[in-house]
Amino acid sequence: MSEPNPYADGEYTWGPGQGGAPGAPGYGYPQGAVPGYGYPQTGPSYPQTGPSYQPTLAGGVPVPPHFAPFPPGAAGAVPLLALGDITVVGDHIITPAGTMPLKGAVWNATDMSRVEEKIPTVAVVLAIVFALFCLVGLLFLLMKEKQTTGFVQIMVTSGGRHHVTMVPATTPDTFHQVMGQINYARTLSV
């Protein structure tokens, strides 16, 4: 990499090891200037009097305020509703992101589940075994098995905050059950 380009026509002279004075540092090294950000601040003009690092913020990193797990006055209250990690207690909504007011909350749900239908392994084995008896075994291939997978996404917005949670869908009726709970939460939010 230190040899000049053999295909150059002589006009191009910039690059590592080219265009500089002999003995000068190559490309990417400090050129004798005052070291800037990222280079160690040592030497005769920079005596080491403090720590060997430079703190980026004098007061440290700002930390968001910690939210109490229960709003004031609701520590012993019974939850009215629980959807995933969203809990309605009294006139507050408690989420991992913080506490929100219940009044004026907007609730939404999205069905992200699906029902898959497949032939079970038992039906395939029985079809092979009973295929020898007048093709009666092929009737076992009509057996179907339904399985629900996916999630129901629940979103709540109130008091300038927004929280989303996912509830696993275990049956085809999971979305209808969640919508019943959300409709109850909407009546509480009025």
> Radius of gyration from the CA trace?
34 Å
The separation of the N and C termini measures: 73 Å
Q: Structural class, from helix and strand content? A: alpha+beta
Q: What is the percent of helical residues?
A: 10-25%
Count of helices?
2
User: SSE string, helix = H, strand = E?
Assistant: EEEEEHEEH
What is the arithmetic mean of pLDDT? 77
Note the beta-strand portion: 25-35%
Can you list the strand order of the major beta sheet?
Answer: 1-2-3-4
Low-confidence segments, given as residue ranges, are none
The biggest beta sheet is recorded as: 4 strands, antiparallel
Secondary structure tally: strands:
7
What's the overall geometry?
A: flat
Offer a few descriptive terms:
190 residues; 3-stranded antiparallel sheet; 27% strand; 4-stranded antiparallel sheet; 2 helices
SSE map:
Blueprint: E1 79-83, E2 86-89, E3 92-95, E4 98-101, E5 106-118, H1 121-129, E6 145-158, E7 161-168, H2 174-189
Antiparallel strand pairs: 1-2, 2-3, 3-4, 5-6, 6-7
Describe the overall structure.
The protein has 190 residues and is of the alpha+beta class. The protein has two helices and seven strands; from the N terminus they run βββββαββα. It has helices at residues 121-129, 174-189; strands at residues 79-83, 86-89, 92-95, 98-101, 106-118, 145-158, 161-168. The strands form two sheets. The protein has a four-stranded antiparallel beta sheet with strand order 1-2-3-4, with helices on one face. The protein has a three-stranded antiparallel beta sheet with strand order 5-6-7, covered by helices on one side. Strand 2 (86-89) and strand 3 form a beta hairpin. It is flat, with a radius of gyration of 34 Å. The chain starts with 78 loop residues before the first strand and ends with a helix. The model has no long low-confidence stretch (mean pLDDT 77).
